[in-house]
Write a structure and sequence with these properties.
This protein has 14 helices and 11 strands. It has 469 residues and is of the alpha/beta class. The structure holds glutamine (GLN).
Length: 469
């Protein structure tokens, strides 16, 4: 990552790029010019370039809070919400000299794969403005792809960092569950959520991951694991790395361009000295069903706090407390969020709990075991990130099931708590990016990033840029 000895001009340049691109892309939800410039001046006045991210402009997904910023999580119910504190990741980025320039647009409460579910309108893919950037961290992916900021943070509950990274032709990393503190992340499904970076190269993503990782006493699920120097492990040597491919998952439902790019990518991995073999993940075809039971159940509990009293918008002109709750939630939440609250409440309710929620937890364990078993014989698992390239905005907005199926290759890593990375691996005939995913054992981000970096260096995809850039 290029650090900037003189911070103000670098930040001013990023702000003007954002301003120019905003009408077409809508990648940002809010831009904090005054705050960012003031912070740049403080860094310049202090002098030195001690931090590893000195002067680097960062976009923050709109569901990660930062003092002084508005954080809407893409929802009307948090339209004017300002957090009194910053997320741990924000504190860590700032301590490393980075400057948050604004918040990036996302699906409401990170529920979605396209940004169609954002209450403020969707983000446009810089490769084709009529198409989705993916979601839910679509604004982060579009902002990085368009060169507005070198890095942005996203959150990944079922693929929301990796899938938009794939659809926008950038690198996205979902860390091991517990690697990065969730303190200050507006919760969607707490047992699945992880924050991670999106960047134009694996190296830059690794650099940011190094900064934001590590135990945080404010998040009881953050792990006491040492944080390796991820960038130091990017030595290009992937000889004898064993890559497992769950062939049985890559059916004819996967776009032909995606399958071709994936097979070519495996050839590249072989040419770099890695070995490729088939692995079985027998329960992963139940991943989507399990994910949408567990994620909605947790969401229904997490979103109970938006009641018009403690956070965000409150309905006016109501006569009773009950009415106030009802109207605030009715007016504040969008259709997809309501659908998930209802689904989640249903699967947790007496009489259905055992049949749905408990069963889903049992299958979740089986899915996690599949990965553990596979990792006895291979070091990494490779899959396409998404079964298709960027689809048109609005195209699946009325077909939730079709939208959910887009997550078929990403939810497994969340259910099993594993790290995953998406790296660009080709373009379709229409010049839309395709992503390649590597999944690793818990805490082995370094292996996964070494593979992604070596792959990236051996292929031309990083140098391809969207027409709007
Ligand atoms: N697309 C998935 C969903 O809608 C994943 C979202 C995410 O990872 N935040 O739930």
């Amino acid at each position: 990552m290029t650090t900037h000895p003189s911070v103000r001009p670098a930040i001013a340049a990023a702000l003007s790029r954002i301003e120019q691109a905003q009408p077409a892309l809508q990648a940002f939800q809010s831009v904090a010019s005054d705050l960012a410039l003031a912070r740049a001046e403080v860094l310049d006045a202090a002098g030195g370039t001690a931090g590893s991210l000195h002067g680097v402009a960062i976009g923050l997904k709109d569901n990660i809070v930062a003092r002084g910023f508005t954080s809407t999580a893409g929802s009307k119910i948090l339209e004017h919400y300002r957090s009194p504190y910053s997320a741990t990741v924000v504190d860590r980025l700032e301590a490393a000299g980075a400057v948050i320039v604004g918040t990036t647009r996302c699906d409401e409460f990170a529920m979605g794969s396209s940004t169609d579910n954002c209450a403020y309108g969707p983000v446009h893919n810089p490769w084709d403005l009529t198409r989705t950037p993916g979601g839910s961290s679509g604004g982060s992916a579009a902002a990085v792809a368009a060169g507005l900021v070198p890095v942005a943070l996203g959150s990944d509950t079922g693929g929301s960092i990796r899938q938009p990274a794939a659809l926008c032709g950038v690198v996205g990393v979902k860390p091991t569950y517990g690697r990065v503190s969730r303190y200050g992340l507006i919760a969607f499904a707490s047992s699945l959520d992880q924050i991670g970076p999106l960047a134009r190269s694996t190296r830059e993503a690794a650099q940011v991951l190094e900064v934001i990782s590590g135990h945080d006493p404010r998040d009881s699920t953050s792990a006491q694991q040492p944080v390796p120097a991820f960038t130091a492990s990017l030595n290009g040597d992937v000889r004898r790395l064993r890559i497992g491919v769950p062939r049985h998952l890559i059916t004819s439902d996967v776009d032909r361009d995606v399958r071709t790019a994936f097979d070519t990518a495996l050839d590249v991995a072989r040419s770099l000295g890695a070995t490729v073999e088939d692995v079985e993940l027998p329960h992963t075809d139940m991943g989507i069903a399990v994910y949408y039971l567990i994620a909605t159940a947790e969401a229904s509990a997490n979103l109970a706090r938006y009641d018009g009293v403690r956070y965000g918008a409150r309905a006016e002109g109501v006569s009773t407390l009950g009415d106030m709750y009802e109207r605030s939630r009715h007016d504040g939440f969008g259709a997809e969020v309501k659908r998930r609250i209802m689904l989640g409440t249903y699967v947790l309710s007496a009489g259905y709990y055992d049949a749905y929620y408990k069963k889903a937890q049992q299958v979740r364990t089986l899915i996690a075991r599949d990965y553990t078993r596979a990792f006895e014989s291979v070091d990494l698992i490779a899959l396409p990130t998404s079964p298709c390239a960027a689809f048109r905005l609005g195209e699946r907005a009325d077909d939730p099931l079709q939208m959910y199926l887009a997550d078929v290759f990403t939810v497994g890593a969340n259910l099993a708590g594993l790290p995953g990375v998406s790296v660009p691996c080709g373009l379709t005939a229409d010049r839309l990016p395709i992503g390649l995913q590597f999944i690793a054992r818990p805490w082995e981000e370094a292996t996964m990033l070494r593979m992604a970096d070596a792959y990236e260096a051996a292929t031309p995809w990083k140098t391809e840029t969207p027409p709007t850039r």
